[in-house]
UniProtKB/TrEMBL annotation:
Name the UniProt record assigns to this protein: ABC transporter ATP-binding protein
Species the sequence originates in: Actinacidiphila oryziradicis
Ranges where the record places region Disordered: 1-29
Principal subcellular localization: membrane
Molecular function in Gene Ontology: ATP binding; ATP hydrolysis activity
Cell compartment(s), UniProt: Cell membrane
A GO CC annotation given for this chain: plasma membrane
Membrane topology reported for the UniProt record: Peripheral membrane protein
Length: 363
């Protein structure tokens, strides 16, 4: 159900002014981050347009975090920054992403040289994307491609790499894995190709797996199987999982925490169950209205009016203001930080309980 807010829409309740905003997502007590992203900003083009703005979050070992939002919200750019594969013309202008505080040597990903990337990508950091066929060489069998990674990254012999590849194909649920080893990408279905790419991604037992829209192009049955596979691999291997999707039902199924992204900013974050049961940002609430899960799924499906701002557009206040049903003149009076709305739950909204009143800009 939607969160309860006292007062009429447009006249939000405020506690006393001066309550401090939380600058970033708090790390749960007693955890060590496998990935620590702090103040990440990505600019595009010569104009240095900010497509991703001051994004901060953490992942602990074995934790699964969902990054959700509409197309163009900055989800994939955030992940590609972590992976060091930003498109031409894009660069990390400030902030950092650090991998490895959960056990291995810490590596500041946003400052790695190409040589150091070779030691991190594939070994400590794995990735699975939406179109697996585009990441596999059509001229080589899938088994040879996996075995080659094992030989280069782990130094296995040809015989050892072949045996390990078959084991990995078995681990990800491919039937007749010895036969699959000798097949080419065009001979496999989309679901089989996604399993092959997952086998490649986990082959060196990385600390972190990033799945960027990994189930979007699959039918619902195969999607459920891939999600179950990711859940099992996470439990068995202690993987930290960053799952990028626009599908809240997928996040509800597999993620411990959720990060909601809009127009380049994190607008809400917190435990998945709490955020989906009581969204504290109007954008999250709107996403649930157009989804089909839980209590929200029993409502008539809706659309979010209006359009997101152009990528990098500089706006004076809340970036969702033009589409928000609760907007007041306060919302556009200045930048809106993240405020606490509960334990480990934050929202970039002036309707949050911890948001201080702003002087002078009443509706």
């Amino acid at each position: 159900m939607p969160p309860s807010h006292s007062g009429e829409a447009g006249s939000p309740h405020r506690p006393e002014a001066g309550t401090a905003a939380l600058p970033r997502e708090p790390r749960p007590a007693g955890t060590t981050a496998v990935l620590d992203v702090e103040g990440l900003t990505v600019t595009v083009g010569g104009s240095r347009t900010r497509a991703v703005r001051d994004v901060s979050f953490t992942l602990a070992r074995g934790e699964s975090v969902g990054l959700v939002g509409e197309s163009g919200s900055g989800k994939s750019l955030t992940c590609r920054s972590v992976l060091g594969v930003l498109p031409p013309g894009c660069e990390v202008s400030s902030g950092r992403a650090v991998l490895g505080n959960g056990g291995g040597e810490a590596a500041e990903l946003t400052a790695l040289t190409r040589k150091r990337w070779d030691a991190v990508r594939g070994r400590r950091l794995g990735a699975v994307f939406q179109d697996p066929a585009s990441y596999l060489n059509p001229a080589l069998t899938v088994g040879r491609q996996l075995a080659e990674q094992l030989r280069v990254k782990l130094g296995l012999s040809r015989t050892e790499a072949h045996a390990r590849a078959v084991e990995l194909f078995t681990d990800v649920g491919l039937h007749r894995p010895s036969d699959v080893y000798h097949q080419y990408p065009h001979e496999l279905s989309g679901g089989m190709l996604q399993r092959v790419l997952i086998a490649v991604a986990i082959s060196c037992e990385p600390e972190l797996l990033i799945a960027d829209e990994a189930t979007t192009a699959l039918d619902v049955v195969i999607q459920a199987e891939i999600l179950e596979l990711l859940r099992r691999l996470r439990a068995e291997h202690g993987l930290a999982l960053l799952l990028v999707t626009h599908d809240l039902a997928v996040v509800a199924e597999i993620c411990d925490r959720i990060l909601v992204m809009y127009a380049g900013e994190i607008v809400e974050n917190g435990p998945t169950a709490g955020v989906l049961a009581a969204p504290a940002h109007p954008y999250t609430e709107a996403l649930l209205r157009v989804a089909s899960i839980g209590e929200w799924g029993r409502r008539e499906l809706d659309t979010i009016p209006g359009r997101p701002p152009e990528a990098g557009a500089e706006l004076p206040g809340c970036r969702f203001a033009d589409r928000c049903a609760y907007v007041t003149t306060e919302c556009t009076a200045g930048p809106v930080p993240l405020y606490s709305v509960g334990e480990h739950h934050q929202s970039r909204c002036l309707r949050a309980p911890a948001a201080p009143a702003r002087e002078g800009a009443r509706a």
